[in-house]
């Protein structure tokens, strides 16, 4: 199939103003009648054929303005319906299709999850329900009649507001009629029908409008929805307070299903969620799960304005809704919890997911210019880097002008499908600035490297900072232009406080504490600086760049202890650890003994005993860079075994030195009061479990006992899972017993069992591969359920570098083989799993050759889905 290109965008030849759907639900043969009101666009010549999208459809009837259409007037295939000579004046098409939800294993379009009918239409699933102009710039008003067996499907849900319900005379069936007054693209269409429990609540908007809120779940799970509901109400209030956005329908429904390709979907007034992001209680959900639920509920809710009221003109503009909405949900979580903690978590995610994407064969701009399969572009680059770009805009403009720009955006483009250019124009107009160079962030792939050199002249009392920027070559982009890079900074004086800058700096635009780097090279001079400061740069991670700033060990230690910016304190600790880990891995690789740096070990001790740090921040600072992060830093010829060994060595050295202090934290913080998911309580658990992780590595006899005790006495999933992970990953004596006990306790809860699969899949050690194979034939495993596949196979491929990249190639083989199996059933899950190969070229020659042959094996399959074909071709190119 030819590539779709941004430059080929043309407005639609026909509009669809109104959609009326009648959906007669049957598990194996659902009948859909779509009545569509078409109008020819002013620029379209009379008689221009109307071409509608379809995907695996069976056409069973077709009428034009109420009359059957002769066979000669149209051409229909499963993926296309062409009306050859449509009327010049507005007309109505009535299209009847028949679809089979039961055999829809792709989970796109209309499918069934445990007996519930539900839909997923983004990006191109609506065309699996009826023939349509399935593109985001065709906005229509939808009315949906849903009819089903009353016994099987007592609950019938659609977009918008409920208009009418009733029974169908002489049958056991009933129907519901839903009307959504807000014009929307087809990807926001949804329906749900099933036997579900309803958890009701309500919300009064700022202007006094009453909104009925409901979460629908499997019977028996009602009590697990409290946190999601609470998060929803807080999201609604926050969006009013912070962005002035109010909800716009009488009802907001959320449905939780257990078979879902993604996290959740923002369908207008009817969000559908992977139940992983709805259900929580202390017994089955970790603190991380609680935080994720809060964030995803907020994210989908915020889409109501950024995505639904204002949507994308075409799929190239995906970051218009996703980057902006991620930014909004990040801000929400920061306000609900601790801002620095949230920022560190978000940046860690960006560095571990987006940076490698941007440095490998799948690199693409935040706004791609070309795609083969749009579902492969719901990436960390579009989402997370897209959010960073919005954040930079705020940094450059300041809070007020940023808000003014967004207000203008909401006002100017409400009800439209629009573009990044239009978005940026709102900020240009509101703030009176030119963002043409800034716009490069949307068009250039790759992570810029900012190189920093400093020089202090005591006689002249000047401090010079020379800055340069460059993007290393990425696929399809040999050269790049300088971007606008906001660098938040401080000059740390000898006492650790930021020096006051009394004279205007020269050589760059400086706004408050932000240096704006906008050329390939710039030299900034600060005057009246009597003594050499430590430059704290990229505070709060003010731009998604890599910093090449060679600080001395002393400077880094100083920063780790003193920087007033919590992010850069964390970063300094991480940099110190990373440098040592890379050095150790290099030594181990050469067969030499590695001895961890005393200085690094000391810094960890100081972090642990620093009373000024909050518990969660401490836990974050004490977290060693992951094996994947270390591999990324090494960059080429990586031996994952050496990386693993280096990390183990440092952990042990830290634990040996500070064992008593860790033990004091473990015993001092445990078991205070009833469980609460709030940030303070979660922070204490995180720190206590981090301390346990180090204490376990002392190998002291009571360490194993302590871990077992935490496992067996835990009254919440966070502690239980942390201890289980130690037992299994450190191969402690009662590892098997723990796994069995966990299983016995959680067997009937598939979300809790996903953690059981994940812990085993990510265990280091040779035996894991055979374990994973055995787990695949476990009755609780289900290769058709995306959550199970992610828990077992995806976590093995992305969270177990030594075993996925085994030197005998068996890890790659297992994943390649699984991809081929899964691809037949669910291409989106398969292609996502395939991206775990993206860093294959950075491995040592033997391993990369094995990875390549696994990829070639996938590639040689002739009937690969378009999704997997696209990823495998790009990965190998
Ligand atoms: N918009 C959906 C993602 C759809 C993915 C389609 N392959 C969820 C979200 O970003 O909120
Ligand atoms: Zn989204």
UniProtKB/TrEMBL annotation:
Cofactor: Zn(2+)
GO molecular function, one term: zinc ion binding
Pfam family, one: Peptidase_M1_N
Annotated ranges, domain Peptidase M1 alanyl aminopeptidase Ig-like fold: 446-549
Family per similarity comment: Belongs to the peptidase M1 family.
Function of the molecule: Aminopeptidase N is involved in the degradation of intracellular peptides generated by protein breakdown during normal growth as well as in response to nutrient starvation.
Domain annotation Peptidase M1 alanyl aminopeptidase C-terminal: ranges: 554-877
Catalytic activity: Release of an N-terminal amino acid, Xaa-|-Yaa- from a peptide, amide or arylamide. Xaa is preferably Ala, but may be most amino acids including Pro (slow action). When a terminal hydrophobic residue is followed by a prolyl residue, the two may be released as an intact Xaa-Pro dipeptide
GO biological process, one term: proteolysis
E.C. number(s) listed in UniProt: 3.4.11.2
Protein name: Aminopeptidase N
Species classification: Bacteria, Pseudomonadati, Pseudomonadota, Alphaproteobacteria, Hyphomicrobiales
NCBIfam families: pepN_proteo
Domain Aminopeptidase N-like N-terminal: 19-188
InterPro entries: Aminopeptidase_N-like_N, Aminopeptidase_N-like_N_sf, PepN_Ig-like_sf, Peptidase_M1, Peptidase_M1_dom, Peptidase_M1_pepN, Peptidase_M1_pepN_C, Peptidase_M1_pepN_C_sf
Domain Peptidase M1 membrane alanine aminopeptidase: 227-438
Keywords: Aminopeptidase, Hydrolase, Metal-binding, Metalloprotease, Protease, Zinc
PANTHER family the UniProt entry points to: PUROMYCIN-SENSITIVE AMINOPEPTIDASE
Enzyme class: hydrolase
């Amino acid at each position: 199939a030819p590539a779709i290109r941004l430059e080929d965008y043309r407005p639609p030849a026909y509009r669809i103003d109104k959609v009326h759907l009648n959906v007669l639900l049957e598990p194996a043969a659902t009948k859909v009648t779509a009545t569509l009101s078409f109008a020819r666009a002013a620029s379209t010549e009379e008689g221009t054929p109307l071409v509608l999208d379809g995907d695996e459809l069976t056409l069973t009837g077709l009428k034009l303005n109420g009359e059957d259409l002769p066979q000669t007037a149209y051409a229909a295939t499963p993926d296309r319906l062409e009306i050859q000579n449509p009327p010049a004046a507005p007309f109505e098409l009535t299209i009847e299709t028949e679809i089979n939800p039961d055999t829809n294993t792709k989970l796109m379009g209309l499918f069934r999850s445990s007996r519930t009918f539900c839909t997923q239409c983004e990006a191109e699933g609506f065309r699996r329900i009826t023939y349509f102009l399935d593109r985001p710039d065709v906005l229509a008003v939808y009315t949906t009649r849903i009819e089903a067996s009353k016994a099987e499907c007592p609950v019938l849900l659609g977009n918008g507001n409920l208009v009418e319900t009733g029974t169908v005379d002489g049958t056991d069936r009933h129907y519901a009629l839903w009307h959504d007054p807000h014009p929307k693209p087809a990807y926001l269409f949804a329906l749900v029908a099933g036997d579900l429990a309803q958890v009701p609540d309500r919300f009064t908007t700022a202007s006094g409008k009453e909104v009925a809120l409901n979460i629908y779940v499997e019977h028996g799970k009602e009590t697990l929805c409290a946190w999601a509901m609470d998060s929803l109400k807080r999201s609604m209030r926050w969006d009013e307070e912070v962005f002035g956005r109010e909800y716009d329908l009488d009802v907001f429904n959320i449905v939780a299903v257990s078979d879902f390709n993604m996290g959740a979907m923002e369908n207008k007034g009817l969000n559908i969620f992977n139940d992983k992001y709805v259900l929580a209680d202390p017994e089955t959900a970790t603190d991380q799960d609680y935080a994720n639920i809060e964030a995803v509920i907020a994210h989908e809710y915020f889409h109501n304005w950024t995505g639904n009221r204002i949507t994308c003109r075409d799929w190239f503009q995906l970051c218009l809704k996703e980057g902006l909405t991620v930014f909004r949900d990040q801000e929400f979580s920061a306000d609900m919890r601790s801002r620095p903690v949230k920022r560190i978590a978000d940046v860690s995610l960006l560095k571990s997911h987006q940076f490698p994407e941007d440095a490998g064969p799948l690199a693409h701009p935040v706004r791609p210019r070309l795609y083969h399969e749009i579902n492969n572009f719901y990436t960390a680059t579009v989402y997370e880097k897209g959010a960073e770009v919005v954040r930079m805009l705020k940094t450059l403009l300041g809070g007020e002008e940023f808000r003014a720009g967004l207000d203008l955006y909401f006002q100017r483009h409400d009800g439209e499908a629009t573009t990044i250019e239009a978005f940026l124009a709102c900020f240009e107009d509101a703030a009176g600035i030119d963002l043409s160079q800034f716009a490069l962030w949307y068009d250039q792939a790759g992570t810029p490297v900012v190189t920093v050199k400093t020089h202090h002249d005591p006689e002249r009392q000047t401090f010079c900072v020379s800055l340069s920027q460059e993007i290393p070559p990425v696929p399809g982009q040999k050269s790049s232009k300088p971007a606008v890079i906001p660098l938040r900074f401080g000059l740390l004086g000898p006492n650790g406080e930021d020096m006051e800058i009394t004279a205007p700096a020269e050589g760059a635009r400086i706004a408050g504490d932000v240096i704006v780097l906008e050329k390939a090279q710039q030299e900034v001079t600060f005057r009246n600086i009597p003594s050499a400061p430590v430059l704290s740069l990229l505070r709060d991670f003010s731009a998604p760049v890599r910093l090449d700033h060679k600080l001395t060990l002393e400077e880094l230690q100083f920063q780790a202890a003193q920087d007033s910016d919590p992010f850069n304190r964390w970063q300094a600790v991480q940099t110190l650890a990373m440098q040592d880990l890379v050095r150790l891995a290099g030594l181990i690789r050469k067969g030499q003994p590695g001895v961890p740096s005393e200085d690094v070990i000391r810094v960890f001790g100081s972090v642990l005993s620093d009373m000024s740090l909050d518990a969660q921040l401490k836990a974050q600072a004490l977290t060693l860079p992951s094996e994947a992060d270390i591999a990324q830093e090494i960059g080429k010829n990586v031996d994952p075994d050496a990386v693993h060994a280096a990390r183990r060595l440092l952990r042990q050295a830290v634990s040996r030195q500070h064992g008593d202090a860790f033990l004091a934290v473990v015993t001092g913080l445990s078991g205070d009061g009833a469980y609460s998911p709030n940030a303070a309580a979660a922070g204490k658990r995180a720190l206590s479990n981090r301390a346990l992780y180090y204490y376990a590595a002392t190998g002291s006899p009571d360490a194993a006992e302590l871990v077992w005790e935490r496992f067996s006495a835990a009254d919440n999933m966070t502690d239980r899972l942390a201890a289980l992970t130690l037992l299994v990953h450190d191969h402690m004596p009662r590892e098997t017993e723990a796994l069995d006990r966990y299983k016995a306790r959680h067997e009937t809860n598939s979300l809790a069992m996903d953690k059981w699969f994940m812990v085993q899949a990510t265990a280091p050690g040779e035996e894991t591969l055979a374990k994973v194979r055995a787990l695949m034939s476990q009755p609780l495993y289900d290769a058709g359920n995306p959550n199970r596949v992610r828990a077992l196979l995806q976590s093995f491929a992305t969270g177990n570098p030594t075993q996925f990249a085994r030197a005998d190639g068996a890890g790659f083989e297992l994943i390649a083989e699984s991809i081929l199996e899964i691809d037949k059933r669910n291409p989106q899950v398969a292609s996502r799993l395939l991206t775990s190969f993206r860093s294959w070229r950075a491995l040592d020659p033997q391993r990369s050759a094995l990875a390549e042959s696994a990829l070639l094996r996938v590639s040689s399959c002739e009937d690969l889905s378009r999704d997997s074909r696209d990823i495998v071709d790009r990965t190998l190119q």
